[in-house]
Write a structure and sequence with these properties.
This is 2-alkenal reductase (Nadp(+)-dependent). By secondary structure, the chain is α+β, with helices and mostly antiparallel strands. The chain is 17% helix and 27% strand. The strands form four sheets. The chain has a five-stranded antiparallel β-sheet with strand order 8-5-6-7-9, with no helix packed on it.
């Protein structure tokens, strides 16, 4: 699939590894990056137009100096979906977000589909490999649910809280749930589930940097 010309692709890049609390000096914005809006033939790739980005608690760990974590193969990989790995210095920040499919050679995603999952902190992200960490947003109605909800309550934070409370803890009626959270989204989701189910929630928000 050939594209004509290039598109501006502003990116947020990790400038230096974060040692304590992240500061503006740890990142820089590259406003001059360009991307060719095409996908190699014979691949199951998607080109995404990013709309919303999530800042999850786990991102802090991934901004630390962990170059020894990567295998030799990973060191040369160009795959934004190494999403659980630490972010390499000089690389685009990656994390969960909401996007619209701009181009696709993957049979599971069509141009114009809305998706949520792992993407880059940039205007456009090309996911070359089969996008295992993308989920299509079905029956989207902006008057009922905003797309931005998929970076929070309907995204990974809410998903973790729902599975943890409902399927791992499995509290009984009027049980007392104790929850430790670094994420406001996880905490608020747990609180909502407990209110509906008549469980008593006792928890602490993590204050560590």
């Amino acid at each position: 699939m050939e594209g004509k010309g290039t598109l501006r692709n502003k990116q947020v890049v990790l400038k230096q590894y974060v040692k304590e609390f992240p500061t503006e000096a740890d990142f820089y914005v590259n406003p001059n990056s360009r991307i060719i809006p095409s996908i190699p033939d014979g691949t199951k790739a998607v080109l995404l137009k990013n709309l919303y980005l999530a800042v999850d608690a786990d991102l802090r760990r991934r901004l630390s100096n962990s170059e020894d974590y990567y295998s030799e193969e990973d060191q040369h990989a160009d795959n934004i979906q190494l999403q659980l790995h630490p972010i390499k210095r000089g690389s685009v920040i990656s994390g969960y977000g909401v996007a619209k499919v701009f181009k696709s050679t993957n049979p599971n995603f069509r141009e114009g589909d809305y998706v949520w999952g792992v993407t880059g902190w940039e205007e456009y992200t090309l996911i070359k490999d089969d996008p295992q960490f993308l989920r299509k947003i079905n029956r989207f109605d902006d008057t009922v649910l905003k797309l931005s909800y998929y970076t929070g309550l309907l995204g990974i934070g809410g998903y973790e809280a729902y599975l943890g409370i409902s399927y791992v803890a499995e509290p009984k009626q009027r049980a007392v749930c104790v929850y430790l959270s670094c994420s406001r989204r996880c905490w608020s989701t747990c609180w909502t589930i407990c209110q509906i189910s008549e469980w008593l929630l006792r928890g602490w928000k993590c204050k560590h940097r």
